[in-house]
Amino acid sequence: MAGACSLQKPLAAPLLVVVELPDGELVETGKGTLAKGGMLSQILGGNWSVASFAPPDPKVFDGFTPYGVPELTVIDAPPAVADSMPAQGKLIAQAARNAGAKVIMLPHNDLGSSLAPLLACELNAAIYTEVIGFDVCEAGLKLKRQALGTRILESKIWNGEAPLVITVAIRTLSTVILRPIEYPAPKITKMSVSIDDLPKSPRIIERIPPDPQSVDVSEAEVIFCAGKGHDKAAFDQLVELTKLLNVTLGVTRPVYDFGWAGFERMVGQTGKAIAPRFYLGIGISGSMHHVGGIKDSRKIIAMNIDSKAPMFANSDEAIVADLKEVLPRLIKRVRAITGGA
After folding, report:
1. CB of 48 within 8 A of CB of 41?
2. Using CB atoms within 10 A as the burial measure, which of 86, 117, 204, 338 is most buried?
3. Nearest-angstrom CA–CA distance, 142 and 93
4. What are phi and psi of 135, to 5 degrees?
5. Alpha-carbon distance 81 to 64, whole Å?
6. Phi, psi of 328 (to 5 degrees)
């Protein structure tokens, strides 16, 4: 393990960034992956490029330009590839070879976490998952991730000898473009694949969307979180509201201590860190342990009867109101709109 890290010794390692286009769209995860790829390429000091499967509308690639993508490999494959992880792994591995990439980066979502080990096997590469940070040391690229929940910061150093596959933790991805420069459109190379080129392999036969009521809070897109401002009746109303809106329930430590929800629902540094698109905290004062676990949420809305609640200082929007008055009205309104029983 080397000593202090610096940017004075770049590895000059070419980077390939893999971007998923769900339903043919460049979504927030894809934008964040592009932004993170540009940052990593500067740290590595080498060329970088992007690989993506061909979408129905190629105009979606216009969204890549603001992130400074210099080269783009579009994998034009039969629809059956979408149902075969081994096939996708082989094709992306070939794209990496064609680009001369030494580092392959993916987001740590369902697709990225499934493809990373397949790519590592195809390329005989090292693999490191859920990376939250990277830097350059005299010994190579220093990669950091959290272990044992968020209690320990683990780091490893890649010396550049073998290829490296990494996945980046979703909560660290930001769509913000740090340097607003007008870049030229990326140079596009098409990689055509026929059905005969595909390996015989297991395939996905059905995709079942996650149930917001049971999904892990660390993976939820929308979370309504209950704090100690609730009594049991108000908490039951919030549970009902989450079911009517089909969103995920979270709780703070006091609510867990009351025994109203299991530990798996607890949000915060003593529970689970979260990074949803939308977080609504109701009746939460805003302890440092809770705020530390929600700070990566894209949008934070807080409601509390106390206008001086610390939670408000850490929120995008604040609502001063009595939850015992608001929740029944919300439920009535939602039932009227959704037709809920």
Report:
1. yes
2. 86
3. 23
4. -155, 170
5. 23
6. -60, -35
Is 233 exposed, middle or buried (CB count within 10 Å of its CB: 0-12, 13-18, 19+)? Answer: exposed
Position of tokens 């037709």? Answer: 339
> How confident is the model over 187-228, as pLDDT tens digits?
999 998 776 666 666 666 676 777 788 888 888 889 999 999
pLDDT of 166 strictly over 50 = yes
pLDDT at 7 over 50: no
Q: What are phi and psi of 276, to 5 degrees?
A: -75, 170
Residue ranges of domains in the chain:
15-197, 217-338
Instruction: Answer whether 15-197 and 217-338 agree in fold.
Output: yes
Q: Which CATH architecture has domain 15-197?
A: 3-Layer(aba) Sandwich (3.40)
Per-residue burial over 291-324, b if 16 or more Cβ lie within 10 Å, else e, is bebbebbeebbbbbeeeebbbbebbeebeeeebe
Residue 174, both tokens: 């930001």
What's the mean pLDDT in 14-30? Answer: 92
User: Does residue 99 have a pLDDT over 50?
Assistant: yes
Count Cβ atoms below 10 Å from residue 71 Cβ, excluding itself: 15
Domain 217-338 sits in CATH 3.40.50.1220: yes
Residues 6+ apart with CB under 8 A from 14: 44, 46, 47, 48, 49, 99, 100, 101, 102, 103
Report which DSSP code applies to 264: G
Query: Are 20 and 107 within 8 A, CB to CB?
Result: yes
CA distance 162 to 86: 21
Burial of residue 189 (CB within 10 Å: 0-12, 13-18, 19+) is middle
Q: How far is CA 70 from CA 48, 114, 178, in A?
A: 7, 27, 17
The answer to whether 225 touches 282, Cβ cutoff 8 Å, is yes
**What is d(CA 24, CA 57) in angstroms, rounded to the nearest whole number?**
7
DSSP 101-155: -SEEEEESSHHHHHHHHHHHHHHT-EEEEEE-EEEEETTEEEEEEEETTTTEEEE
Give the phi and the psi of residue 42 in degrees, each rounded to 5: -65, -40
